[in-house]
Amino acid sequence: MKRKLAVLLALALVGTMVPGCSKKPEEAEPAVVEEEPAQEPEEPEEPAEPEEPEEVIPENQNLLTGVPDLSEDAIGKRPVAVMVNNIPAAMPQYGVEEADIIFEIPVEGDQTRFMALYADYTKVPKVCAIRSCRAYFPAISQGFDAFYVNWGIDESMGDYIAALGLDQYDGMYNPGGLFGRDQDRLNSGYALEHTAYFDGTKFASYVQSQGTRTDLRDDKKDTAFKFNGLDEQIKPSGGDCTRVDIDFGAQSAALIYDEQSGTYKKENTGKPQIDGKTGNQLAFTNVIVLETSITVRDDVGHKNVDWSGGEDAVGYYISNGGMQKINWYKQENNEQDRIHLYDENGQELSLNRGKTYIAINYPNQMQMQ
């Protein structure tokens, strides 16, 4: 009995030990935490460059020079084109220094004549010596929608000139008492043809009293040329140029750069060209030479001047001590069109703001230094 009990106790003891020998439960593998890649620090955004404000052009901008110097009464009004004697025997002229643009073109005998343009019709000075009209001058002035002032005309071209529909003021008829003879010149021995004057100081009141249109045509209310910025003076890209010599035939012109003023000072046939009232030498910010066909039309020596040029017509722009070759044209048979100026890449030429001298002349009659 005791033996049986001992066996049962042994078996019970073995039973209690079985769990201690059983396999351990599998341990759970630690969870893998994926690390996010380190983010590179963001570069600070560069501040956007502020847009340059568009240049504000003053309302009184002179449409011929780009300079804001018009009187209030001249804003949006027509300019005045005045024919001026330019041969040495008529020197010195007066009233020409105040012109905004001066054209110099050959006439008979290869002497030259000026057409002086004044943007402010209320401030035209007394101008002397006034000379007669040649057809190509009003053909150019019409592109500026200008009043046209002269003393006498080339009668053989009278029908053409009449057909242009000019607002023309001719000293032969002395409208409004605007013309006269300079007595001081007569007393000094000037020939009669070199003594005629136009009293521009009376012009605005006379035009207004006649009810003549003074407002510019809508297509002429922008500037006559494209201009650089108000504070820009840009040197043309074609090389240095401090002197221009132009041979018209019987006369010559030289324009010599004055670095201090930034202008080209003019000589006529070897002598400084002076305004007789101010005593100042004529000076220009821009010099433009346009080459074209010029032929003799009759026994008197009147000229045919091709004022239309062409897309391949050659010209030169000189300013600020530099020069560049250009092309020019004015629409053929369209006197109302302006002269257009382009660089050799076909882009519209942009001029420095200031007075401009324009020579229209035979080809290959210019030298530059």
Question: How would you explain this protein's 3D organization?
Answer:
There is one protein chain. The protein is of the alpha+beta class. The chain is 12% helix and 29% strand. The chain is built from five helices and 23 strands. It has helices at residues 2-21, 136-141, 158-163, 183-188, 203-210; strands spanning 80-85, 101-106, 112-118, 126-128, 147-150, 168-170, 179-181, 196-199, 226-227, 243-247, 252-258, 263-268, 271-272, 283-284, 286-291, 294-296, 303-305, 309-319, 322-329, 340-343, 350-351, 356-361, 366-368. The strands form five sheets. A ten-stranded mixed beta sheet has the order 6-5-1-3-2-22-15-18-19-20. Strands 10, 11, 12, 13, 14 and 23 form a six-stranded antiparallel beta sheet that branches. It starts with a helix and ends with a strand.
